[in-house]
Amino acid sequence: MRKETPVRWDEKRGAWDAFDYQSVKNVLENKDLFSSNRSRRQEGEQASPIELSLISIDPPKHTQMRSLVNKAFTPRVMKDWRPRIERIANQLLDEIQNPSEIDLVKQYSYPLPVMVIAEILGVPIKDQAKFKDWSEWVVAGPTDNSPEAIKRLEENQQRTYYELYVYFKEIIAMKRKQPGEDIISVLIDAEMQGTMLTEDEIIGFCILLLVAGNETTTNLISNAYYCFTEFPELYEEIFKDPAGTLPLTIEEVLRYRSPVQSMSRVAKEDTVLNGSQIKAGNIVVAWMGSANRDEQQFENAHQFNIRRKPNPHLAFGKGIHFCLGAPLARLEAEIAMAEWIKRYPRFERSSGFSLEPIESTFVYGLKEFKL
Ligand code: HEM
Question: CB of 65 within 8 A of CB of 354?
Fold first, then answer.
């Protein structure tokens, strides 16, 4: 597909698909030709919080908002986060009696990012179960293409957004009275100093962090362990030199098993993409998962190789919308594996080994992973 039709029109979905590395990179990078405002709202319809958030807006608003929220994700801030994430990882590891009897997703790769994001947002950890339900609904697709399935999904998503809205409104009211060392307090402070985030925008950003940061990082961690089961020598190599190999491993997992497979844009004007005529208003889906396996860009693209240099994968996107949480996701994945490796010198599949992939064309990861 990537070779024969690197850019193709899909009549059924009414959208273009870009599969090759160069086209995917062009779509993501070219903010003047491709907009992130994907809303199909009719006039009078209310925008969802995600539609108002960073990931769905274009410059100049995007530039302003991003420069404000960037402050929460700098390398200095990440340094402060390291001991907190290590504590969370060890708390979860302490609860594991025997690694060959666990569901890795349920007991490790899912709770870790949720606990981290709860601390970053400064929300009570007891709300974790609600977070899971909410994030799943926001990123869910219809079970099939029938009008009933689409309607059901829309209703559930509306309910979810409403619940999230009410939830964060209460949290913000609480933080106004009693600020903490968390990102919501930072954003409220910025708002009060007259910088441009309204309460609705803060709520939209909180929801985006919850949604963008949870399932993606869970899948990165699960996918890394999936690679351990596929390439047993990898674990041995990491065990001998975690500091030297873990960052490389994470980059290769991101390329080889990209947690986010695609992002879409809307063409702002008529343009040509790798020979295809795109019309203004057309949706273009950039398939990063495919670009990351493009042989034109990566030698032996279907081989897992942590020594590949350079490794310019597009798993975190490219250009102005490049993942804000990439340093955090990398840190979480590194700590998750480093702390595990300290406890377990070997990684072996048990007799009950089984895994269940998530059914989605958008995210790539595991629903269940019994080691
Ligand atoms: C944007 C992937 C983790 C927050 C993005 C984009 C991708 C991505 C592909 C670009 C979207 C676009 O171009 O339209 C991932 C992956 C992750 C991850 C693969 C984990 C392995 C996180 C985490 C957070 C986060 C942990 C925060 C806690 C964001 C935000 C944006 C974003 C706020 C929007 C940035 C903007 O529009 O300027 N992410 N993400 N992500 N991500 Fe992540």
Answer: no
